[in-house]
Amino acid sequence: MQTLGEKIKVLRVAKGMTQEDLAGKLGYSKSFISYIESGERNLSDVDTDRIAKCLEVSAEDLRSKGAVVSFQFRSSKVGTDEEHRKVAQKFTDYARKLIEDSDSNQEASVWKGSQKR
């Protein structure tokens, strides 16, 4: 299961943000973001809400037990932004269903470039 910090990191990277970028938008230090992502620092509800808003997700999604799944297109030369958004939404919907359907003792994993069987 992903920690809150791991989820924040996945979402930050998916948005193309560095730790400095996220820290700057929130008025935090880069080291504070690093501590959060590594699990060395706990977050208050207020901080979780602020980070979620900045990353454009709900605080409930960050706090949930479900995994955050992200991917990036390798080439922006194929398709339009709208087509990319549609594919991303389908992938996200599929990943959420996969996670929801998995047994409580199993974790659904999406591996970049390979499949776990």
Provide structural commentary.
- By secondary structure, the chain is mostly helical.
- The protein has 2 domains: about 5-65, lambda repressor-like DNA-binding domains (434 Repressor (Amino-terminal Domain)); about 70-115, no CATH class.
- About 55% of the residues lie in helices and about 0% in strands.
- The protein has helices spanning about 5-15, 20-25, 30-40, 45-55, 60-65, 80-100.
- Residues about 105-115 have low confidence and may be disordered.
Task: Give me the number of helical elements.
Answer: 6
Share in helix? 55-70%
The CA-CA distance between the termini, in Å, is: 18 Å
Low-confidence stretches: 103-117
Largest sheet: none
Oligomeric status of the shown chains?
single chain
